[in-house]
Design a protein that fits this description.
The protein is mainly α. Helix content is 62%, strand content 2%. Helix 6 (97-106) packs parallel to helix 12, helix 12 (246-262) packs antiparallel against helix 13 and helix 13 (266-280) packs antiparallel against helix 14 (287-301).
Length: 349
């Protein structure tokens, strides 16, 4: 049954693509009455909730068209997508200003069901922390900070184990056989998180200068250039090419800040910061680290549960990010965000 529903959704989307501005009755008749009209209408309602289609008119005069959200939100089969080698995939090679200035500004990113789940989890988090003293909250935050510092660094290739990370951050004990830079990377994460905890409103509103400040904390002592890059960068595993003009990079960052600041939904603010800072690649290195810390800073500012990403698979994280780079599709990364928010609420505080 689930397969039939999914197939019907695809059939309806294909029809609306081919025959835009169609009414529900016209869609039903155009499909040859393959299912009951009531089923067609229910499926269209589902597509509306998922932001795959948009409407014009009202009542019997309602017409349906493909939404700008379809390309961004429609689920992609990750395994099938990466069966193709890098040069076989059809990708959006260039950066899209329209994506940030128009598309993401106009569409909700979460369905009704997803928002109900996230809000329920957030309510649980709010109730939990209301029972904690300030000292107890800080103890729990430190536990999450250790996990986040470890996983965020692991995603970037750091080889410290979680236990070694805990010893480093708590006792300043470096692990044998590891490089100095690996230890510095982890300590920088903790320093940035401590700064955010002490200054929870630092990125509200979000600004380019505040993003640069957090990046500076994360790359301290690692020999990485600070401030907006002025040279081209490539991303391994993809043919997507980030902007290489400093002025355009700054413009993209400004557009991102406007988008995030204007969004009322805190979950959307957090998710958009995660993917767009990585997409823009404003720095020569440390972009995804900065994205994870600033996204969490936004959640913390609004008293939402931060994410540690502890259980996310590093390869899955990178694949979800590559899909956004190449297709501007956020579905895989949105799933990671929801899963990690649920894990954080149930694990910490």
């Amino acid at each position: 049954m689930a397969k039939l529903k999914f197939d019907l959704q695809k059939i309806l989307l294909d029809y609306i693509k081919k025959y835009p501005n169609s009414s529900s009755r016209e869609i039903d008749e155009g499909l040859g009455n393959v299912v009951a009209f009531a089923t067609v209408k229910r499926t269209i309602t589902t597509l509306l909730d998922k932001n795959f289609v948009a409407t014009t008119g009202r009542g019997k005069a309602t017409k349906y068209n493909i939404s700008k959200g379809l390309e961004v939100l429609f689920p992609i089969d990750i395994d099938a997508y990466f069966e193709k080698e890098i040069d076989e995939r059809e990708v959006k090679e260039g950066f899209s200003f329209e994506l940030i200035k128009e598309v993401l500004n106009e569409i909700p990113l979460f369905t009704t069901d997803e928002m109900e789940k996230l809000n329920h989890l957030q309510n649980n988090f709010t109730q939990n922390i209301s029972k904690l003293s300030k000292a107890e909250y800080q103890t729990e935050f430190e536990r999450l900070a250790i996990d986040l510092s470890w996983k965020s660094s692991q995603i970037e290739g750091n080889t410290y184990s979680l236990l070694e990370t805990e010893k480093l951050l708590k006792e300043k004990e470096t692990a044998a056989g590891k490089t100095k830079d690996e230890a510095v990377m982890l300590l920088n994460h903790k320093a940035a998180l401590d700064f955010i905890l002490e200054n929870p409103d630092y990125v509200n509103p979000l600004s380019v200068s505040r993003i640069e400040d957090i990046h500076s904390l994360l790359v301290e002592g690692l020999g990485i250039d600070r401030n907006i890059r002025n040279r081209r960068v490539g991303i391994s595993g993809t043919n997507y090419k980030p902007l290489d003009n400093t002025f355009q990079i700054e413009e993209a960052l400004e557009n991102m800040c406007v988008l995030v600041n204007n969004k009322e939904n805190v979950f959307e603010k957090g998710l958009l910061t995660l993917v767009l800072l990585s997409y823009i690649q404003p720095f020569s290195d440390g972009n995804k680290r900065t994205a994870r810390i600033i996204s969490n800073a936004i959640l913390i500012n609004y008293k939402y549960c931060p994410l540690s990403f502890r259980t996310v698979d590093s390869i899955d994280y990178k694949k979800a990010m590559l899909i956004f780079y190449e297709q501007n599709n956020i579905s895989a990364f949105k799933n990671i965000f929801i899963e990690q928010f649920e894990f954080a609420v149930k694990t910490y505080f």
